[in-house]
Amino acid sequence: MKHTASQPVTEQRNEKTANLDKLSVLEIIEVMNAEDQTVAVAVRQALPQIESAISGIVERMKLGGRLFYIGAGTSGRLGILDASECPPTFGVNRELVTGIIAGGEAAIMTAIENAEDDADAGAGDIEAVITAADVVVGIAASGNTPYVIGAIRRAREIGALTVSVSCNSGARLSEAAQYAIEVPVGPEIVTGSTRLKAGTATKMVLNMITTTAMIKLGKVYGNLMVNVQATNLKLRDRVVRIVQDATGADEAAAAAHVEQAEGDARLAILMIRFGIGKAQAQGALQQSGDHFGDAVELLEKEKKKEKGIIE
């Protein structure tokens, strides 16, 4: 099959899988696994672009900006997935990270294929929710989706920081954004099915964006999810283990402090580590802008002052 120069690589035929329908189950999953192994390599090659984008995002978020993902189809769903996991994992407001999909909520469960072709709709959807203080990440495997390009262009006009994530080189979306992330993963094993390698690559990049941003915003201590919300039995048990890991306290002491802290691992850790009450721990967090690492440093300095240690 001959390809035109304008055809995105993600839409081209993968010659390695030309006889895919003739393969056994084992052969199909072997070729899928082999192709998937190339995704991590492609993401690694894009790390400089990803680093620059995340640095810009963190700078905006430290000043109070919010993060918006916008995409169509699989790309939109991946943005919504990543956004929805931030509150329980990092204890942040649902408004801090938001996913928007072409076609609205109905498109989360049902494909609305023509919604991605409306650039004006993308511009209107983003204009309705952002300010100049925010960040907008446009996601499109092809890098050519009009809805997403329209959203990014409008976001940039408003003054928001704009980032693009695509799986092709030289994407039109890249030209519209201030920070362009391109992860060219090559043709899919099923031609044009970008829910496969392109979807995996996109998920990896979005994982990096929010996880790194939350770490830099002080929502992680060491490698512990100190901001996790204890909303069920499994997570309540996890909070106790986090407090144990962070302080060396036994299970009973950790559980008792977690109860006093009303399930807030950060407060329980500070209470145990510095021998202080809940109110003082809350005050340290408030003074530190809810950055847990900064709260620890603040209390360490106060403890040194009490002991007469001058740095």
TrEMBL record:
Alphabetized CDD domains for the sequence: SIS_Etherase
Key words of the record: Carbohydrate metabolism, Lyase
Coiled-coil features, chain-numbered ranges: none
Catalyzed reactions per annotation: N-acetyl-D-muramate 6-phosphate + H2O = N-acetyl-D-glucosamine 6-phosphate + (R)-lactate
EC code: 4.2.1.126
Pathway: Amino-sugar metabolism; N-acetylmuramate degradation
Keyword field contains Transferase: no
Family matches, as InterPro entries: Etherase_MurQ (IPR005488), Glucokinase_regulatory_CS (IPR005486), MURQ/GCKR (IPR040190), SIS_dom (IPR001347), SIS_dom_sf (IPR046348)
Biological process terms in GO annotation: amino sugar catabolic process; N-acetylmuramic acid catabolic process; peptidoglycan turnover
Active site: 85, 116
Domain SIS as annotated: residue spans: 57-219
SUPFAM superfamilies: SIS domain
Domain of life: Bacteria
GO molecular function, one term: ether hydrolase activity
Pfam families hit by this protein: GKRP_SIS_N
Family: Belongs to the GCKR-like family. MurNAc-6-P etherase subfamily.
PANTHER family documented for this protein: GLUCOKINASE REGULATORY PROTEIN (PTHR10088)
Other notes: A lyase-type mechanism (elimination/hydration) is suggested for the cleavage of the lactyl ether bond of MurNAc 6-phosphate, with the formation of an alpha,beta-unsaturated aldehyde intermediate with (E)-stereochemistry, followed by the syn addition of water to give product.
Subunit structure: Homodimer.
Function: Specifically catalyzes the cleavage of the D-lactyl ether substituent of MurNAc 6-phosphate, producing GlcNAc 6-phosphate and D-lactate.
The name this protein goes by in its record: N-acetylmuramic acid 6-phosphate etherase
Taxon lineage: Bacteria, Bacillati, Bacillota, Bacilli, Bacillales
